[in-house]
Structures
1.
Amino acid sequence: MPQAATAASGSGPTDKDESAGLQMLEIKNLHAKVKGREILRGLDLSLKAGEVHAIMGPNGSGKSTLAQVLAGRDTYEVTDGTVTYQGQDLLALSPEDRARAGVFLAFQYPVEIPGVSNNYFLRTALNAVRKYQGQEELDAVDFLALVQKKMQLLHMDEALMKRAVNEGFSGGEKKRNEIFQMAVLEPRLAILDETDSGLDIDALKTVAAGVNALRAPDRTVLLVTHYQRLLTYIVPDYVHVLSAGQIVKSGGKELALELEDKGYQWLGEPDLVAGA
Amino acid sequence: MAMLGLKDATTGVYTNYLARFAGQEPRPAWLHELRRQAFGRFTELGFPHHKQEGWRQTNMAAVAEAVYEPQPPPPPARLVPQLRALELPGVDWSAGATRLVFVNGVYAAGLSALGPEAAGCRIGSLAERFATTDLSAHFNHADEAGQAFVQLNTAFLADGALIEVPAGKVLQRPIAVLYLTLGTSGAAARGEAQGIAQPRSLVLLGAGSQAWVIETFAGLESERYLTNSVISIDLGDNAQLEYTRIEQESGRSVHVSKLRTRQGRDSRLVAHNIALGGGLVRNNVHSILDGEGAECTLNGLYTLTGTQHVDNSTVLDHAKPLGTSREYYKGVLDGKSVGVFNGRIIVRPDAQHTDAIQSNKNLLLSDSAATLSSQPQLEIYADDVRCTHGATVGQLDQEALFYLRSRGLGLEQSRKLLVYAFAADVLGRVRTPGLREKLEALLWARWAV
Ligand SMILES: Nc1ncnc2c1ncn2[C@@H]1O[C@H](COP(=O)(O)OP(=O)(O)OP(=O)(O)O)[C@@H](O)[C@H]1O
Ligand SMILES: [Mg+2]
């Protein structure tokens, strides 16, 4: 049972201060392939509850692959390694069960789904999560109240709720919609894949405020970004560099500034570091 | 009798039709003459062969070889609960509704009802009208002379729905017609008769009138029978009609239909075709835009499972200038089902400034087993026209599926939601009061895999 697993890991939402510092996600020696090509090549990463981690790295280094593998996308084949989420084997769970257990991925490229209203989609998603976690499902009225609160937080236009999921949304609206979904679903582990790309400066601040509002001792945020700018609004506890499928350097928030200044080449392994 | 053109007397099947034909009462005289001519044409034509143009993808050999006999309807005490158990979104059983029910093509007065709005119209059983009025002109269109199933229907013309709305009258509530065909439920034994019904509908809208008509074709699950229906619709100048045809036949039945529409000047027709049931289905539509500025929308949805075979063959016939036609057909195909779409657009020399758009989109749910054939056919004899067509066959969008699942929706629920979303615009065009919601509920349940 997922509830039991949550309890075993000690990160129940009741006692927030105690849950801080407990293991949220432990990735060991992760290898993943797509279409026969190895993208992740022995990746290790350890995230504790209450922390914010940033992952940076050159184009094509495997950041989105990591995010998608964690969310359960089956185009990526995990060939070796383990991923432990709150004490349970994450890789053994279906994508929907990962979401229900509190894993959330904000997509680098959110998908348009014509014919499905945002409102219906999000209520169904929230109730699937709540049901799994043993909470009562929300009726239309309670859901509306919750949604209105979150929409204010993210300065979302109410009309977007009635529209089809992401259909015809501008690039920025799609990103904002991802964070809005996150705010409603209140995950334990939020993975944000380049949510800052394509946002104007005001939208960036709003999105950052949405993420910061979610920060809590029993939650963990993993940010994938190319830009130091986001990290001035969401200050990370750790910064990692992903290059050619491995974490090649980790440090504090100063590392992001250093990368902004010097790029990725100085980290060595030039034959492995593509682009930059 | 002109039985000399009979092509295939060896099967004994035609002898069976002949015997039944001869058993019909030869009155009234005009009807007898109409039937006699039609039967003559039918025997000359024979059933369409699958090598014949227009029938290559749909083989009617099973129909040509089968023996059909109208089955006696069960007593009302048994039939009524069976009827109520069928989920029929097109039939309104509530008080005040106008409803014409036919069992095996014969009017069932006890199940039918006329609402207050019916008062100023002529709505009821064709058979009752036959006694007093010669309606041959409505049943004898030259463009149908070569259509064997239409001729067969006319040869046995006995009853069906008559809906006549006088000029200027605007109806608020839909008129529902239910054709229930009863069959036989045993295994197919050689020579054993199956059920048959050949209903006929005549819908006549006077100039400037407006109406909603819903026709449902249904059977009891797993019964074997043939429904061969012919519907003729005529819209006077400026008339408006939304017509919905819901086909919910038994999975072991054969359903053949012909819908012929003729539209006067500036009239508007929206014809929905929702194909849900039937084992072997062939729907023929011929829409004639016969007045300047006429608008016609053909909106179709077919959703197939198992070994269902559904063929929609439509002809949009622009005969006069400034006509607008929109044809949107969508299919959802699962299992080993077969879908066929043939969309013909004719723009006659006189039909300048025609604006025609045709689209056929299909969603294949099973990996490889279901098949689809989609064929547009444009025949344009006028020079100043806009005519476009497009067809697609696709599968569920895997990106979308993953996106939904990544938010906590289960795999089956996500699939269902995407199928539903695919069909949403077709259902969205249904404006008949109360109908769309019921269709949505039915389809939602159907796609609950
Ligand atoms: N579905 C796929 N099919 C084929 N190749 C893929 C697929 N997904 C990822 N790749 C390849 O894997 C490599 C890593 O891609 P990934 O999207 O993880 O990079 P990234 O670090 O997120 O890059 P960016 O900064 O540009 O977003 C790339 O070379 C990419 O082309
Ligand atoms: Mg990426």
Note: Chain B has ten helices and 20 strands.
2.
Amino acid sequence: MARIGVFVCHCGENIGRTVDCAKVAELCGQVPGVVHSVDYKYMCSDPGQQMVKAAIAEKGLTGVVVAACSPHMHEKTFRRATAGGGLNPFLCEMANVREHCSWIHEDRDAATVKAVDITKTIVEKVKRNVPLSTIRIPVTRRALVIGGGIAGIQAALDIADGGREVILVEKDPSIGGHMSQLSETFPTLDCSQCILTPRMVEVYQHPRIKLYSYSEVESVEGYIGNFKVKIRRKARSIDEDKCNGCGACTKTCPNKKIPSEFDCGLGKRTAIYVPFPQAVPNLPTIDRAKCLLFMNRAKGRPDTCKKCAEACSKEAIDFDQVDRFVTEDVGAIVVATGYQLYTIGKDQAKPNIKGYGEYGYGTIPDVIDGLQFERLASASGPTSGKIQRPSDGKEPKRIVFLQCIGSRDPQKGMDYCSKICCMYVAKHTMLYHHKVHDGQATVFYMDIRAAGKGYDEFSRRAIEEEGARYIRGRVSKMWRDGDVIKIQGFDTLAGEPIEMDADMVVLATAMRPQPGIDSLAQKLSVSYDQHGFINEAHPKLRPVETNTAGVYVAGACQAPRDIPDAVAMASATASKVLGLFANEMLEREPTVARVDESSCAGCFHCERVCAYGAVEHKEIKDRAGNVLRVIAYVNPGVCQGCGTCQATCPSKSVELAGFTDEQIWSEIQALGV
Amino acid sequence: MTELRELARRLLSEGTVNAVLGWEEGPRGARPAFVTTPDGADRLIFDPRCVHDLASYLSPRRPHLKKLGKVAVVLKPCDARAVAGLIRETQIPRENVVLVGVRCGGVLADPESTAPLSETTVADRCRGCPDREAKLADHVVGTAGAGFPGPSRRAQKIEELAAMPVDRRWDFWQAELSKCVRCHACRQVCPLCFCERCMADKSLPRWIESSPHARGNIAWHITRAMHLAGRCVDCGECERVCPEGIPLGLITRKIAQVVSDRYDFRPSDDPAVPAPVGTYRMDDPQEFIL
Ligand SMILES: Cc1cc2nc3c(=O)[nH]c(=O)nc-3n(C[C@H](O)[C@H](O)[C@H](O)COP(=O)(O)OP(=O)(O)OC[C@H]3O[C@@H](n4cnc5c(N)ncnc54)[C@H](O)[C@@H]3O)c2cc1C
Ligand code: SF4
Ligand code: SF4
Ligand code: SF4
Ligand code: SF4
């Protein structure tokens, strides 16, 4: 026989003001099976918890119902108290009479009736609860970090410094990400490379970091603490063990006119190339799409050029190298794949994203984007830091910056704020002013969003001390007339149209997630928003976790981020990972799905709908080892307890422990409908 | 017919299979037959009276077939779609069955009928059926008639129902479903109702009231319709066996139409085409998610 105790909380005035708690306790005391029913001012206080513990012992309770706030708030508290009283914690449940009742009603009598009903449903459920015990699963204490930008670098270093091994996978030939392309960084104007490259080297030399550059994640299996990751090491055409990075090969390559990705097309590179001098690892890569030998091979012609191989004294060039695969076991994964910039061209990767016809779809040569400006301003860039416009190499005396290009514009398909542009445009006007003393920088902006330590001061400095002219408004049209760019816009503060000539225009284009983020997210079973940014598990309370346990997110792949943000997130993921790795075994809530083996039909609808890949196939064999049936098995380590399978199973053969059909059904029955 | 019998004889005498499942002449028209010896192959027939969907026998829940080991089964194009469904939903390994397709130009509404196949006697579901032979089959035998053009009367009735005001439609279904005696013949005959234990038989909790009365009947038929959404192959068996003559095809076809319009899925005899349940596509309509 059930012996249930009901504990009704006033939550100070929060519940007591609208609900007659003494009445609720009295009426619930009359429910069959309830042997103890009391109310108290603050159930979660220490005396309140003592009441629960004492009643369990004195009344021999078999179940505890606390009618109070949301289980999100205090379920843990009362389950701990129940365990302290000697009862299995899962025999305790909360009836939410605050968020679901007192806070949303005014009529005291009606609210009291409703509170009784809510409590009764939970009483019926608890009568059918069974003891559950936490699941313990082993943890592989090594981490995978995907993406070697500043976020990935920071996460890898923090985890490795915390004593755990890290596998760092970077898709490009070098780590460094976008930060390696920047000139100087707001808000302090320190040189980006100078602060970044020591960390890149540290990654390379760290005894606990294994770097796979020019590699991508092929597939991910398993679950928190126990992932199996297959990594594709793309063919670099270089034997990494033999190459000493002397660079003789790159000097002899005859194909020297390839637009350099690192210089955003403003500089050139060879077909065998090292993206930039401080690249880590300092190894060349053959771009097979541009190499003469491979272009000939693709057409079925014999190998002609082998100049790089001839120049290499180490015989490190390997034209026949193929993609290789390695598998790594890891317990946690950090996604740090960063961003790309939106381009204003006509052709866009997604149908909902539109280009800028009004700016000629990016066809005017002296209209560049922010990263290109970074390369122009960088001492290591294609112009050695001189601001020269791409069309004729002249120094622009009138430079115009346009903010919010794509960002905050639902019509272009991106309704979000890219967050960093206000700041880097201010930075750009300063860098320009430092280099072109007689030039005039003009900025068209919508608002200035400079919330951050030292940020507002920084952008004000651009206006007040460094001569930038800020116009609030948008540019409606832009075209080329001889060698000037004609600009037509509207000054919304003056309330009048504005026209001006510019020698060069810099667009602060929107930050978008990396291409291919959706397929990576699908491999990891993490969700992403309509733009492709990875979703965090909770926007406030779990900002670096994802909806898949053991997978974390850092940097600009989650939302537009600047460097301080990206680094803070990265360190946060590292602390989460190190916390996870603190124990050899991992404890999980036992509210996971279980399959009724006798009735499962093996249709595997559950497998198809499970977003976490938790459902496996299990063979039921006879004594001789013949397979009788194949049925579903839920791996408790992977299951997140979402209940989707339970709702889908046609024969109702899979149920969540703690939320069985029978338990939920009895709750509904208790309402008498 | 000789072609079919020859093939069956060969499969049995060479030991490729232990039984051939087809149709034979019975006391009241055509009926399903299990042939286990080469000589028995002469019993096999195929003509427009062979309406039964033999795929139902392949479900692992049918013990008599399980005992026989590897079998061959004779299939019309619609039956092949059911076999594909069973393979897709991991009920039978493809390599465990030999599939013998028979070319089909439509069947009669009634296996006991002696009337020749004509515009008036053909099963309504065969009107507009585009398939003449099963692509999934290992062997294909026979010749097929030209088939019958659509639309079926049923399709017209579905349109008529859709055009009705909601309360009149509700009245129509109330009246039809109140006839249901809950014999569950529709479930037993369905090749895709293969659950080990149907949720309608579950008692803890009892999801669906088991006695034939309005509430339970509606719950049963809504559940059946939902469980067959994107899975029903239109073999017509449920409607044929219903002792109360309830037009079950109107329900299954309406749902099939919705699945086809919204998720671009039609049951085919290709088991590799993923079923709509559990298939997620980026462009799936999802305006119902608030
Ligand atoms: C014009 C401009 C100026 C800026 N100036 C400043 C500034 O002054 N100060 C400041 O704080 N911030 C600035 N920023 C922002 C700064 O660039 C970002 O905050 C920072 O680079 C984010 O780092 P990240 O590691 O998240 O992403 P990224 O730098 O984009 O790095 C991501 C890395 O992941 C790799 N990757 C991507 N996909 C995969 C995959 N599938 N598998 C493996 N690897 C993958 C990429 O190759 C890349 O190396 C500026 C940005 C722009 C556009
Ligand atoms: S959906 Fe249900 S019947 Fe089908 S495999 Fe899963 S648990 Fe078994
Ligand atoms: S409850 Fe079911 S669907 Fe959800 S994660 Fe667990 S097994 Fe997958
Ligand atoms: S066969 Fe007819 S009467 Fe029997 S359960 Fe099905 S619909 Fe009802
Ligand atoms: S629901 Fe009816 S028509 Fe559809 S597959 Fe089952 S028996 Fe055949």
Note: The domain at 142-234+323-338+514-580 of chain A is CATH 3.50.50.60 (FAD/NAD(P)-binding domain).
